[in-house]
Fold each of these.
Amino acid sequence: MGYHAERVAYLRTFAPWIVYAAFPTQYWRWSALLAAGIALAGIAHQRRAGRDWDALVLEIGSAVFFAVITVVAFADPGTGLHDYTPALANAVLAVVAGASLALRVPFTLSIAKQSAPREFWEQPLFIRTAYVLTSVWAASFALGAVALAALAHAPTPRTVVQALTFAIPMLFTVRYVARVRDRARALAARPVSRG
């Protein structure tokens, strides 16, 4: 269940952002509206599943961002802000990820809890892993925001940077979690020394 469930949880969490990025730029109004709808539906689904509000920091940030972008996009479709929405999206994600760290509820912790057995949730290694992963995601989003602002008028490189800001931390997450699990298994398998 582990790896597959984690990947599904990450895809579900980032679905609004993926949908928004996947639409051609000329349809940004509709992609923002669809992303806002997906974010709100995700929050409703998670709340029905019993998730607390503090575990939905990223989902709430996503819904607010896409609601604001939708209003701006429909109010002024030709706004110069449009070219900078990928950079703004990454900046918002960086702020939300950073806020989740500051509030001591790293957003990756809530994602991990969707696939990890409850007995692991309070273990220091589990919690520390969430802090490391959230920090990597926050750094990737922050660097992506800067790069995307610089590439605001260059669609092809901008698309590559957008993909990398998600792909790099996702790859890191998969590898880091595998390494942590291997280390935890090795520690559990060691014989207990009797003093």
Amino acid sequence: MSMWWSLRLRREAASVPLARRLLVGAMETAGVDPDVAFDLSLALTEACANAVEHGGAAAGDDYRVTAHFDGDRCHIEVIDSGPGFAARTPPDPTHPPATAPPLTDTGAEGGRGLFLIAELSDHVDIRDRPGRGAVVSFDKILKWREDAPLQAA
């Protein structure tokens, strides 16, 4: 069985816990293992926080969150309307321009969100959207509780 939902959220701090609660509620209802649900909810929190902080020039800009459960996999995508990763990444004259920052822990106080998403997920894709914006998408293989109503057959 599969299910999906999509949200269009204002780029403000209050939207982050809302998206997280909706994801957690969907996973609890579907019967996803609590440890997997925690990892996905934390990764989503980081992706949404990035969209809120970096995802647009105007206060009225919004962002979109989509979650798709299909069989034994969950796919989450967060799309913003900001300048994209290339505009946020300082140019390095020794390397060609990148469209996304590295997925490593730099040791800096901030900037660990993408690293956390990569560590909590099985697959991550971070890219600029054609035109304007950034896309952070990630997948995780689901584990199910014994009594899971949506458990993959």
Amino acid sequence: MFGSKKTDDEKAASKALLELRLAAAPVGGMMVRKDPLRFTAPGQMDVLVKGATITIDRGEAAKRITATRVLTTGIFALALKKDATKLFVTIEGADGKSAMLLECAAKKEAGARKFAMLVHAKHPAEDLTD
């Protein structure tokens, strides 16, 4: 009567997308966009959600220099000082070419880890673009 009815799968995918967007918000100002489902952040390249991997490093505990870090920051990756009050969130696309490096406050670690778990699980929101 008042527009089209959503199927149960569409409702679940919409709910999952909202959950993913809420989990992504505190992580360095990142947003989740549709068509195709991807992560975006100011000054970063977009990364598709499907097949993405997320690594969370905690300030000074993150001693290694990853290829993604070098890719996103260039030669400055060697000089970047790690701060114990921050988390460094690295998102790598399944294609191996797209990546983003974000930082957020260490006090948001629980939210960042929840976000990573949502992405690593087969996410129903991915069905919106399949």
Amino acid sequence: MTTAKDIMHTGATWIPAHETLDRAAQLMRDHKVGALPISARGAQDRMIGILTDRDIVIGCVAMGHDPSKMTAGDLAHGTPRWIDSEANVEMVLEEMQTHRIRRLPVVENKKLIGMISEADLAQHLTDEQIAHWVEKVYSPSG
């Protein structure tokens, strides 16, 4: 059985909620990622959201805000989703499709150990699985 741990990429990095968006963009650049889980102030292992490069552009820059003054926590909205490292691929796909998300943090023993992105799915799934996932996540009707 292929698990979330088998298809994730390692090295996921937290960003504290109090950290500025310009620092978040620097971390994304340095780690070559497009998303960072946001940790609660003083609790590195408690996720309160996920910050994407798109969030920074749409929620800050395009609104005329200063990314050196806005924080990751300012853009943390909704309920963060995650998956256990031992979950099978079908569970991963179901979680991502149901919530129409493109990145999914992977946890083991309540600790962040990786992230699953579209690129990870493309490398590990069949064409049929990918096509179904794309239809569910990107179609207007879901």
